Structures are given as C-alpha cells and as structure tokens.
C-alpha cells in the first residue's frame, strides 16, 4: 500500500420535523433517474437552487442517494438524485449503485426519467424497463439547447410515447432557470397532500462531512479528465469544527500506482490544484475558513470488494 501526502491547502444534517398541516400543503419524494451523463446532477442542483450534487463529464460521478430539498409556497419537493444505472460492468461497486437506484424507485411518489432530447439508446431503454408501472413517470428531455433541428423532435416524441404512457413530456435545458421553474410547476400537482418532511429552509439531508468528500471527488474527476478510471473514491479521515474554521483531512483511494501518479501530477501540482479548488468551493458552501489536507493511497481491487465498499460508505 502506498501513501502520499499533499501540502496542506489553505488555512446539519436535517432530520426534518413534522409541521402542522396548513390547507393545501404538499410534500413528496421525486426520483431523478436515467443513464449516466444525461445531466441528472445538474438538474438536481438547478431544481434545489444550490449545489447539493456533484457534476462532471465523467460517467458515474454520482454514487450515492443524494437528497435535495426545495420548498416553494405550500409545496415541498424532496428530490433524490441517483447514480446512473450501470449496464456495462458487473463490479461490486456497480451492483451496489444499481441497488441504490432500485431502492429509491420503491419509495418515491413521482419519477423524472431524464434522457437527452432527440436521443434514446439501449442504456436508456434498460433504465426505462426498471421504472415502476404504478407511479407517474415524467419524461424530461434534457439538453434541448443541443438539438439543432427542432423539426426532428416530433417524430422522436411520437416514438417515445409508444414506449410508455408518460404522465408528462417536458423538453428543457437544466441550464435555463425559467425552464427549471416550469418543471417545478409541472411536478407540483403530483406531490401528495401531506405535511412537509423537512424545515422550510432545508436544502439537503446530507452532512457537511459527506458534502466535503463529494466536492473533493468532483474536483478529482474534473481535473484528471478521462485519464483516471472512475474507480476512485474519497474518504474523510478528519472533520473538525473550530469556530469559523473547518479542519478536514481526506484520502483519495485509487486501485493502481499509475492512477496515483495521475492524481499527484508533476511535482505534486495536480494534487495541489485539486486541493485548492476543493477548498475554495467548500469555503463558499460552508461560509467559513477551511484547512484541507489531501492524501493519496492505493487499495487494489477496492471497487470489487464488498468489505471495502461498506467501509467507504457505500450503501
């Protein structure tokens, strides 16, 4: 096992109390599902109005069930961002991620099935086949701004309607806030009339410790591009609060020595940049000073080890 340290960078979990039930109050669980890289995490962050789920161009960025909360007037939307359903590899990690997706679908009130506008492939079809028949499914055709010939959308939509009787069809771009607000309005009637699950100002049910690991992993993937296999993860070793300061120590876990070298970079420059960008975003998110220390360790075969997955926090 090889351990490498970086130069240190830089110097609440909501339980959700039950409220009284004013007239017309609604609350429900909304799953965001789809194959990898259709924009689920970007959509989640736009719907919540703040970053709660990490994004990158690398497939399988999201690995956990992430809950984002948005309360608008009488309605509380509890969005659940899921890993992209994996159909190509059968590691223990992918089996765990797929169980997470299936577990989410059993609990929710409504499903947002996210695809790329004008595209529908075998991986999309495999996800569609998993969606429950007894729950409303809204087809969200994301990345509409990338469609150059809008006339081709009508035959595509007709073909989609033949695949399933979707409750709604919503063409949109998650990058455009008016379209995000329109989606919220479309989802609202599908929320059951019941008390809210969380306080009005809650944004997520995840802890700052969890969000720190996710943000470091996002910077890791963004700054290594396609060089680094997705079988890399981040473990928080220390998270201490000292007034307006957070002291965080984290370990980046990889499977091979070569992967470690990719992360460290020449003279440790890439690892320093990962730490610097993660620290700056954590300071914005937590509104405090952050002291961040990163390490890189090799753990061969961790992604195919149920024991390692449990120890690294995979559900």
UniProtKB/TrEMBL annotation:
It is a peripheral membrane protein. It holds the Pfam family KH_2. Residues 81-84 are annotated as: G3. Residues 26-193 form the Era-type G domain. Residues 1-25 are annotated as: Disordered. Residues 216-300 form the KH type-2 domain. PROSITE patterns: G_ERA (PS51713), KH_TYPE_2 (PS50823). InterPro entries: G_ERA_dom, GTP-bd, GTPase_Era-like, KH_dom-like_a/b, KH_dom_type_2, KH_sf_prok-type, P-loop_NTPase, Small_GTP-bd. Residues 142-145 are annotated as: G4. Residues 34-41 are annotated as: G1. Monomer. Belongs to the TRAFAC class TrmE-Era-EngA-EngB-Septin-like GTPase superfamily. Era GTPase family. This is GTPase Era. The lineage of its organism: Bacteria, Pseudomonadati, Pseudomonadota, Betaproteobacteria, Burkholderiales.
């Amino acid at each position: 096992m090889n351990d490498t340290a970086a130069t240190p960078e830089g110097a609440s979990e909501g339980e959700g109390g039950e409220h009284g039930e004013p007239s017309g109050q609604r609350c429900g669980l909304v799953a965001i599902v789809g194959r990898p890289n259709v924009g689920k995490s970007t959509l989640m962050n736009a719907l919540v109005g703040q970053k709660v789920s990490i994004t990158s161009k690398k497939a399988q960025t999201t690995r956990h069930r992430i809950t984002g909360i948005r309360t608008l007037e009488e309605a509380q939307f509890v969005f659940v961002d899921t890993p992209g359903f994996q159909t190509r590899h059968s590691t223990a990690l992918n089996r765990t991620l797929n169980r997470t997706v299936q577990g989410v679908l059993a609990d929710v009130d409504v499903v947002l099935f996210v695809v790329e506008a004008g595209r529908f492939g075998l991986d999309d079809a495999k996800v569609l086949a998993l969606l429950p028949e007894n729950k409303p499914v809204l087809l969200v055709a994301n990345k509409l701004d990338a469609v150059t010939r809008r006339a081709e959308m009508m035959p595509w939509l007709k073909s989609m309607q033949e695949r399933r009787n979707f409750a709604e069809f919503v063409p949109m771009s998650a990058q455009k806030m008016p379209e995000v607000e329109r989606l919220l309005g479309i989802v609202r009637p599908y929320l059951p009339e019941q008390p809210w699950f969380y306080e009005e100002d809650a944004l997520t049910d995840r802890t700052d410790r969890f969000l720190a690991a996710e943000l470091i992993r996002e910077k890791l993937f963004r700054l290594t591009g396609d060089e680094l296999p997705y079988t890399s993860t981040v473990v928080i070793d220390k998270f201490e609060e000292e007034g307006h300061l957070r002291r965080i120590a984290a370990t980046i876990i990889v499977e091979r020595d070569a992967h470690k070298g990719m992360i460290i970079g020449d003279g440790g420059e890439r690892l320093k940049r990962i730490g610097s960008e993660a620290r700056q975003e954590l300071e914005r998110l937590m509104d405090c000073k952050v002291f961040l220390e990163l390490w890189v360790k090799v753990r061969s075969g961790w992604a195919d080890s149920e024991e390692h997955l449990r120890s690294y926090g995979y559900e």
